[in-house]
Write a structure and sequence with these properties.
The chain is an alpha/beta fold. It contains 13 helices and 6 strands. It has a 6-stranded parallel sheet with strand order 3-2-4-1-5-6, with helices on both faces. The longest helix has 28 residues. β2, α2 and β3 form a beta-alpha-beta unit.
């Protein structure tokens, strides 16, 4: 086995579990969280701190500038390189994060779609900002109904990409996805998904954001805001950043901004639960709350004491 993959909703304790396992197994940690790649977002993305990073090697954390539109394809290429280097050193990779698309690309492959066409993308982005995602969705539904059926009418970035691919190639992104190959063989990885009780998780989300606000989250939002970046960039839309920036512009109170950030986090967690249930059916679910119990559960799975299976 080359890698242990740890997915879970936000604030479920993925980083703590990855670090505990890395210390027990002499492993290295690879980030699979789309917000934690940005160096501008250490606090608001709950990226591991310097103390945690000193306890075990961490890769693909904070290596991307907030002005960059980082993609799943870029992450996959970097992750494959990292996992290969870790394996060559005779170590296990622990890939952890909350971005389901990253794990899907790693274990199922990434569609061989053309790179973005700057002029085409600029035009679609302008429409998205001016008219909202419904306009693009209506066009996609007519041109590529199969792909449109897999997306929601408000999922602007994915609608844009699907329409962009269809316009550039005349081929459905769905067809390209069907032809993709996995980046890792099934026997090379073990997938575990944290599955805490929702009430427990939501309380943790609220506590964590209070901690973020006290630990410099507002300063981080201010530093990002004064850069004057496009508000459509992923870093500018990271959970917590928009409401804090709204507060800094004098539009809402700090209490309202924090409440909005907590609600956004809880909504994101709901989507992550749905992703795990629908997309990670073969992954081992871990329901234990104590870190020690979680570590032992994963170690047992690694040893093959218990088959890897989801608790449906």
């Amino acid at each position: 086995m080359r890698a242990v993959l740890i997915m879970g909703p936000t604030a479920s304790g993925k980083s703590a579990l990855a670090l505990a396992l890395a210390e027990r197994l002499g492993a290295e940690i690879v980030n699979a969280d789309a917000a934690q790649v940005y160096r501008d977002l250490r606090v608001l993305s709950a990226r591991p701190g310097a103390e945690e990073e000193a306890r075990a090697p961490h890769r693909l954390y904070g290596h991307v500038d907030g002005a960059e539109r980082y993609s799943v394809g870029k992450w996959l290429s970097a992750a494959q390189t990292a996992i290969a280097e870790i394996g060559a050193a005779g170590r296990l990779a622990i890939v952890t994060g909350g971005t389901g698309l990253y794990f899907k690309a790693l274990t199922e492959g990434l569609a061989s779609a053309p790179p973005p066409d700057p002029a085409l993308r600029a035009g679609l982005l302008a429409r998205l900002k001016a008219d909202g995602p419904q306009s693009l969705y209506a066009e996609l539904a007519q041109a590529d109904p199969e792909m449109a059926a897999t997306l929601g009418p408000r999922d602007g970035p994915r609608i844009l990409r699907a329409l962009e691919v269809y316009r550039a190639t005349g081929i459905s992104l769905r067809a390209l996805q069907a032809a993709m190959a996995p980046a890792m063989r099934a026997e090379d990885w073990l997938g575990v998904a944290l599955w805490p009780e929702r009430a427990t998780l939501y309380a943790a989300i609220n506590r964590r954001f209070d901690g973020m606000a006290a630990a410099g989250g507002l300063d981080e939002a201010r530093a990002l805001m004064i850069r004057g970046l496009d508000t459509d960039l992923p870093a500018m839309k990271a959970i917590g950043a928009p409401p804090l920036m709204a507060h800094l512009r004098g539009e809402i109170s700090l209490d309202r901004a924090c409440d909005k950030a907590k609600q956004d986090s809880r909504n994101y967690a709901k989507r992550q639960y749905t992703w795990i249930r629908g997309q990670m059916k073969s992954w081992r679910r871990i329901t234990a709350d104590r870190l020690e119990d979680r570590v032992e559960d994963v170690l047992a799975a690694i040893r093959g004491v218990d088959p890897v299976a989801a608790d449906h």
